[in-house]
Specification:
single chain; 435 residues; alpha/beta; Lyase, Ornithine Decarboxylase, Chain A, domain 1; TIM Barrel; 2 domains; nine-stranded mixed sheet; eight-stranded parallel barrel; 23 strands; 26% strand; globular; binds ligand LLP
């Protein structure tokens, strides 16, 4: 009945996730509440890992893209499941360090890593730094020289393939703040190969997010391999690793046609294998960076319904006790969601409602004109597929504390991120002595 894999209806006609009754969770932990199904997170990790074994004989590594959802408990799960991680900031790196995540499986990304972030990464011996531009390459070499270290780097290249949710295109010149244009790439490799404290390992690309098609991956993989061949021919530089990024799409609403995750790896692997055999080059070590596909569907958000306002002939607004502070994706992208009433889980969907948050912002919606069951004041509303880019993009706008995150497994729910309280809200405020 539900489009979401993480939830089912239990004998009390309540929604259940990870064996936990959502109405009980709302009572015990309060709302809004992020709930994540540990089993589904682990299952998704294994789908990717097994696909690497199946299609590449284990010649690859899955790096979870931390930006989708980063917390110490999450890194513990990823470690247990044998994944690596991609981090894009000192904060994500610090969280991984504190969680005891093995640093050799950390890949550090970002278009403007600061000198202190680079130093932190080098001090902690992260596996790779994925270089975004020439300035950064020089910074890394200088910092590494000062510490008498050699840093393994990969380079973010723009393959000129741009993928959107339902379409993709190949453009000559990609207008993006990330990475190095194909035309400029030789220069940076030439420089890098002369640097004493740099070890070139690979190339990286990331073509977009929430991609529900295989074609753009095949095209990007081919373009990157063509570049690798040119690198070898022109500069004698042989890359050992090809990182094809993330972006594998999930099902948010019934119209979304999700592709089984392993199929992306199958398509990428087939492209790699046939290209390499045709061109007589060694198959590189393959890296992937799934974020949303690991955690997206595994998370739901529970809200308590507050005021309901019907504007006759126009729209019915159902307000919940959260909103763009815990889920800014409608406000940012016009993203669409599906959901259910957790305390009457089998209620049929009978009317269109607009679910609104509590912020002073008209765009503060969870969804516009969503087909939902009849909703009443006090109901517990569950919004599906909020595990990726919800908590990680949450804010304290209007001084609203962030919700807790609980991890549900086998009927047990454990808090993995505490709910913020009003003291957290004023934690960094200072009233200067002369005020
Ligand atoms: N690798 C790189 C270099 C990335 O920039 C990203 C996402 C990923 C991997 C993971 O992509 P995923 O598998 O999660 O699609 N805030 C947006 C998504 C931004 C994605 C940014 N980069 C959203 O809420 O849809």
């Amino acid at each position: 009945m539900f489009i979401n894999e993480a939830v089912r209806i239990n004998s009390a006609n309540h929604l259940e996730i990870g064996g936990c009754d959502c109405v009980d969770l709302a009572k015990e932990f309060g709302t809004p509440l992020y709930v994540m199904d540990e089993g589904l997170i682990r299952k998704n990790c294994r789908i990717f890992r097994n696909a690497i074994d199946e299609y590449l004989n284990g010649n690859g590594l899955v790096l979870y893209a931390s930006k989708a959802f980063s917390s110490m408990a999450m890194y513990r799960i990823l470690h247990q499941e044998g994944l690596g991680i991609d981090v894009v900031s000192g904060g994500e790196l610090y969280t991984a360090l504190k969680a005891g995540f093995p640093m050799e499986r950390v890949y550090f990304h970002g278009n403007n890593k600061t000198v202190s972030e680079l130093a932190m990464a080098i001090d902690n011996n992260v596996g790779r730094i994925v270089v975004d531009n020439m300035q950064e390459l020089c910074n890394i070499n200088k910092i590494a020289a000062g510490k008498n270290k050699t840093v393994s780097v990969s380079f973010r290249i723009k393959p000129g393939v741009e993928a959107h949710t339902y379409e993709f295109c190949k453009t000559g010149q990609t207008d993006s703040k990330f990475g190095i244009d194909l035309e400029d790439a030789f220069e940076i490799f030439e420089e890098a190969s002369l640097m004493k404290n740099i070890r070139i390992t690979g190339i990286h690309c990331h073509i977009g997010s929430q991609i529900l098609s295989l074609e753009p991956y095949k095209l990007a993989t081919e373009t990157m391999l063509e570049f690798a061949v040119l690198l070898k021919d022109k500069l004698g530089v042989e890359i050992q690793e090809l990182n094809v990024g993330g972006g594998f799409g999930i099902k948010y609403v019934s119209e979304d046609v999700q592709i089984d995750f392993h199929k992306y790896i199958e398509a990428i692997s087939e492209t790699v294998k046939s290209f390499c055999s045709q061109n007589g080059i060694k198959v590189p070590f393959i890296l992937l960076e799934p974020g949303r596909s690991i955690v997206g569907a595994a998370g739901i958000t529970l809200y308590t319904v507050g005021n309901i306002k019907e504007i006759k002939g126009i729209r019915k607004y159902v307000s919940v006790d959260g909103g763009m502070t815990d889920n800014p994706r409608y406000a940012l992208y016009g993203a669409k969601y599906d959901g259910a009433v957790a305390n009457r889980a089998d209620a049929p969907k009978v009317e269109k409602v607009t679910i609104a948050g509590k912020c002073c912002e008209s765009g503060d919606l969870i969804g516009k004109d969503m087909l939902m069951p009849k909703i009443e004041v006090g109901d517990i509303l569950a919004i599906f597929a909020t595990g990726a880019y919800n908590y990680s993009m949450s804010s304290n706008y209007n001084r609203i504390p962030r919700p807790a995150v609980v991890l549900a497994r086998d009927g047990k729910a454990r808090v993995i991120v505490k709910r913020e309280d009003y003291n957290d809200i004023i934690r960094n405020d200072i009233i200067p002595g002369d005020l």
